[in-house]
Amino acid sequence: MQTYAMLIDGSWVQSAKTFDVKNPATDAVIAKVPDASAADVDRAVQAARRAFDGGWRDVTAQERGRILLRLAEKMRAELPRLAQIETENSGKPIVESEYDLTDVATCFEYYGGLATKLHGEVLNVPDNAVSMALREPLGVAGQIIPWNYPLLMAAWKLAPAICAGCSMVIKPAEQTPLTLLEFARFFEECGLPKGVVNVVTGFGETGAAIVAHGDVDKIAFTGSMEVGKIIMRSAADTLKKVSLELGGKSPNIFFADADFEAAVDGALFGVFVNQGEVCSAGSRVLIERPIYKKMLDAMVAKAKTIKLGPGMDRATKMGPVVSKEQMERVMRYQEIGKKEAKVAVGGGRAAVSGFEKGYFVQPTIFYDVSNAATIAREEIFGPVMSVIPFDDEAEALKIANDTPYGLAAAVWSRDIFKCFRMVKRLQAGIVWVNHMQPTYVEAPWGGYKMSGIGRELGPWGAEEYQQVKQVHINLNEAPIGWY
Ligand code: NAI
Ligand code: MG
């Protein structure tokens, strides 16, 4: 078992208290990690401020880009080792960890290239003047990361912030801090000046101390809607900028004319990949009545073949959920679902031989679910699908949009006209047509309605870490002449 330190001002430091990190497949403690206090957070924020004011803000975009590219290269070189740690810490199948960490490298590469392409504008004001909108880094960013894609969600925040020239204090989730702590060991050799990225570990209290800190200019958060609201309230005291990604209850909509095999596969993948611990999970599966029964039967047959097991086994298609707490949360929803709807498959904890203490839950499909049911309204964040029938396009749209969330939606049909009518009226920040979950660093990611504020990835992601300065240069040498 390893004891980790956290990174503040380029030094690896301990804290007064530590906490245990577990392997969800075995319930065994695999590491001890510092539990950062408000005083630790304050030191980290001060280091970030010193780094920003003391030179980082003047480092050229070209140099920032090179640092990002070096980090990408280092990520690729260390990928097998970090993927193993990601799986041991989060539970996810090793094959998925490898995908995720490849995406981490791609994210750093993308922002490495973007650094020199972020530019301001020159405006056509009606005067003999040059008017400009300059883009400047916001300053010190606080970044709070969830546990479902531990290093990838950190990359989505680190890379654009470095690209934009911010310094930062980042906190991984208490369940899954290990890969970010490992990755932080590369900062120095990749040329990142000390204090530019500080990594503090801890629970919600540590996160809250970052949010409340008066010298943090912006908070970027991914996690629950509940904590998103707390963060926004707290950020109001210091009028910080906030960007929030708060998950969803995304509709995955299947019309009768969709390719049937692709539909069955897309519905299952949409909510069972990564144990269903996906902010954009297609957890509400809407099926047009003519194919309702047939598609349900086909999904159930296939769901029964999903191989559960420890993530380190390459044959595993579904690992344990991240924590005992999350397993109990999913099981509570399974019990609620049994009262509200009919169970087609699953519905409880799963037994995996040799891993009796693991946090495994059965891939579960509820059908004849009312959109008013709790399991259709609340984010479960586990392998639980709610199947809802519909009669026509209008009803599908009404059900799809009848949710406080608005992160993602998917539509499956061979009719391009119908697809596009749906695309235009779905209230979601991301809409997939005849696909589920593809995510590209080039494309914007974020939610409508209560799924959040702001966008990650692409140029939008970097702009969240910038502020705009208007500059007016008068070219008339004469006085204004008013008085
Ligand atoms: P959470 O929202 O409590 O935790 C996410 C991050 O926020 C962690 O780093 C945590 O330490 C931090 N945090 C917690 N309380 C905080 C506070 N008051 N101030 C600042 N930071 C704070 O999520 P949790 O409790 O682990 O999971 C509960 C549910 O949240 C899940 O079942 C799922 O529905 C949702 N969730 C959504 C995610 C998404 O990707 N949108 C990711 C993780 C959870
Ligand atoms: Mg929580």
Summarize the structure.
It is built from 15 helices and 21 strands. With 483 residues, it is α/β, with parallel strands linked by helices. The protein starts with a strand and ends in a 9-residue tail after the last strand.
What's the arrangement of secondary structure elements?
Blueprint: E1 2-3, E2 6-8, E3 11-13, E4 17-23, E5 28-35, H1 38-53, H2 61-77, H3 79-90, H4 94-114, E6 121-123, E7 129-137, E8 140-144, H5 150-164, E9 167-171, H6 178-184, E10 197-199, H7 204-212, E11 218-222, H8 225-236, E12 241-245, E13 251-254, H9 260-272, E14 284-288, H10 289-303, H11 324-340, E15 342-345, E16 364-367, H12 374-377, E17 384-390, H13 393-401, E18 408-412, H14 416-425, E19 430-433, E20 452-453, H15 458-463, E21 466-474
Parallel strand pairs: 1-5, 8-9, 8-11, 9-10, 11-12, 13-14, 13-18, 14-17, 16-17, 18-19
Antiparallel strand pairs: 2-3, 4-5, 6-7, 7-21, 12-20, 15-16
Bound molecules: 1,4-dihydronicotinamide adenine dinucleotide and magnesium ion.
